[in-house]
Write a structure and sequence with these properties.
This protein has 369 residues and is an alpha/beta fold. 32% of the residues lie in helices and 21% in strands. The structure holds flavin-adenine dinucleotide.
Length: 369
């Protein structure tokens, strides 16, 4: 039997950033909003909760908020206070830990050098393998740091993360990762980097706490009966699923998260995330207390195992996938009564701040009708 709807103006499918921000904007503008998510909770992939030992963990992998957009920060600040946090990552190569993204300290420690900034720039210039045009991820990395660093830090990590060779992935994947001649060891360099003071879930609860918003979790869009009673639908799930996979399924990379609590261990690793490019089946380990600042006599970590099957997490950036998405996008753009927004609906790797921006724009579009 289908899920019976109440007569609301707008149905929003998915309670992650895309759905929740759109719902709030429409509610603030006086619309009645019914927000559903097939999962048993709000927050989408940013959902966090206390584990059974009382440590705040991110159930779907580490989420660090960073943005250069003051407007997005101000918007979210309506629903949360912040804890300043700059994420740092170390990569294990041949049993030793090195700053990642690669910076001058990485070079000096790895090769026993004492380069200054100009020396590091010369080093990269000497070892790089110029590529023209730069089409794939392999091109990007070889073109900037050369073969040895490529093999030590990127090649096997990419194989694990994507199940593909770097030469099979579009340039944009590797272009996300900078290479530095200075000693800046922050993972992100955005003007604003912070974590919601009481966690993401609390921030979502505040965002959705509005008399015009009704939230139902554990409800799949496929089970909603009587869609006609809604004036408009905002859909943040996978666009191919919306159209019954009529052109075929859009490829995604999935992850298995292995959470572990270490009782009596106050600190497991020196920084928030340690990458294992060459060893183990997992890509990285994150220790949440670095991110959240929580004090606790034990600690909780998560290992990420990339896999082909499972929840869709990362759109796989290849030309043929982009072409397939374009076919679905053409259908989506022709819809009058449905707005598609978010990383699954737009088949795009979006950071959280970008999704907030996209959702604010989507809400503006709906209200302008
Ligand atoms: C491992 C990992 C780490 C990340 N780390 C960062 C980071 O550090 N910083 C950063 O800025 N971004 C990060 N991101 C990206 C971030 O997760 C996304 O930008 C954000 O979650 C996207 O929000 P969304 O609402 O578009 O999608 P989602 O959060 O996925 O929400 C979509 C929701 O729709 C629901 N849904 C789907 N289909 C249906 C259906 N048929 N019926 C009902 N509900 C449905 C899903 O259950 C889901 O809850 C990370 C992503 C991953 C996978």
């Amino acid at each position: 039997m289908g899920y019976q709807v109440v007569n609301r103006h707008v149905l929003v499918v998915g309670a992650g950033f895309a759905g929740s921000v759109t719902a709030r904007e429409l509610a603030d503008a006086g619309r009645q909003v019914h927000l559903i998510d097939k999962r048993g909770h709000i927050g989408g992939n940013a959902y966090d909760e206390l584990d059974s030992h009382g440590v705040l963990v991110h159930c779907y992998g580490p989420h660090i908020f960073h943005t250069n957009a003051e407007r997005i920060l101000q918007y979210l600040s309506r629903f949360t206070e912040w804890r300043p946090y700059e994420h740092r990552v170390l990569g294990v190569v041949e049993g030793k830990l090195y700053p990642f993204p690669i910076n001058r300290d990485t070079l000096n420690r790895l090769y026993g050098l004492q380069l200054d900034e100009a020396g590091a720039a010369e080093f990269f210039e000497r070892v790089r393998e110029p590529r023209d045009p730069v089409r794939t991820s392999e091109d990007v990395v070889l073109n900037s740091v050369g073969r040895d660093l490529y093999e030590k830090f990127f090649l096997n990590y990419t194989r694990k993360q994507w199940g593909l060779e770097p030469s099979q992935l579009k340039a944009g994947v590797a272009a996300r990762i900078p290479v530095r001649t200075n000693t800046d060891d922050r993972y992100f360099t955005d003007a604003f980097q912070a974590m919601p003071l009481h966690g993401y879930t609390r921030m979502f609860e505040n965002m959705l706490d509005h008399p015009n918003i009704r939230v139902d979790t554990g409800v799949d869009f496929a089970d909603v009966a009587d869609l006609g009673s809604y004036g408009h639908i905002v859909y943040t799930g996978p666009v191919d699923a919306f159209y019954g996979f009529r052109f075929g399924a859009l490829p995604y990379r999935s992850l298995r998260f292995e959470h572990e609590h270490l009782a009596g261990v106050e600190r497991y690793q020196a920084v928030g995330t340690v990458n294992y490019p060459n060893d183990h089946a997992y890509t990285r380990i994150t220790e949440f207390k670095h991110l959240t600042g929580q004090e606790h006599p034990g600690t909780s970590i998560v290992r990420e195992y990339p896999q082909a099957e499972g929840e869709p997490y990362y759109p796989i950036p290849r030309d043929e996938n982009e072409a397939l998405f374009k076919r679905y996008e053409a259908l989506a753009l022709a819809e009058d009564a449905v707005t598609f927004v978010g990383r699954l609906a737009q088949y795009r790797y979006y950071n959280m701040d970008q999704v907030v921006g996209a959702a604010l724009a989507a809400a503006r579009g709906i209200l302008a009708r």
